[in-house]
Model the fold of this input.
Amino acid sequence: MGDILFLAHRIPYPPDRGDKIRGFNILKYLSRKKRVHLIAFADRSEDLKRKGGLAPFTGNRSIVWRSKPQLAAGVQSLLTHRPVSLTSFQNESLQQSVDNILARHAIDTIFVFSGQMAQYLPARPRQRVIMDFVDMDSAKFEAYAQSSKGLKSWMFAREARLLQQFERQVAARADASLFVSEAEAALFRKRTGAERVYAVENGIDTEFYDPAAQFKRIDSMGPLIVFTGQMDYRPNVEGVEWFVRTVWPHIRVSHPDVRFAIVGRNPTDAVKALGKEPGVVVTGEVADVRGWLAAASVAVAPLKIARGVQNKVLEAMAMARPVVATGDAAQGIDHGGTIRVGSSVGEMAEAIDELLSDPRKAAELGASARERMQQRYSWDARLAPLDELLGLTGRSAGRSTAAA
Done:
């Protein structure tokens, strides 16, 4: 039995943002089955200092610093007729690391985490290839194109078109293509005609995300609405902008003392500007998001563009917080009615107002949400389908449309 080579577009440690959380938990799960060699990019110096945290789960680790300027990647994309998503991650040093591992070790499975890394697969892989697309990135860029104008719209439409062609080609070569939700998997099958497409959902660590756990708490000083996320990520930025400009004024009419906290690292100038609005707080990076979630009267996910499963929603539910989310942010989560969903300004404002006005009802909804997470979303349960896809059960993965 051979080893696993795990390729990741971002070092999956520390698990402090959506993609790294999924990557880390998959890596950890796989390491209990076989020896795993990790090759990944790093784009934050802090992550390089803490990469030793992956030692218990990996054999060889090769972390390559990703520093290609976006402009250079864009020019390269135009010259080579390739998606910017690929040229941004094209790197000779990382390719050499892949070649060395494949030459020196008996690798029987290559696990590719995120589509950008599929360009490092051998032309004709002798190994089993598991391609975790997570989300359908081409559909995300298509949505960007539809919400943009002029040159930006053209650039995003080009990226969507080229990326979908690449996704189709990769899926044809992979033994299994994974997505974070059945909705994403179904969309991918419809758009590409691909087979061997499976849904492997995200989980949540309900012992860590537990309102009764030990963590630094904050004084909310009154009703508090909380949004968490990486605040230089376009869907998050547009989501909080939409919320503050449209929903927030309605809420403050009924609850003038309520505050809205935007919690997450690297807030853009546009996000920082929201902090000038009455009652809005922009925290920037925090050491532990649990303190803010525990203090929240309501957690919101007002995303207008969202793919797959939102970890921010799972985390708030596990922390027993009442959640109000748009339909896009709630898609892919089997919440069983334990969160409120409203995509229009009126629906979002009404749901939030109701929960702020009735703390007892809010607490009951939060408790139901946590119970749902405990029953449905443990990482071991969500990742168990990988055993069959990796050939560890003695059965073929077959052509099932979902492995969830």
In short: The two ends are 26 Å apart (CA to CA). The CA atoms of residues 309 and 331 lie 7 Å apart.
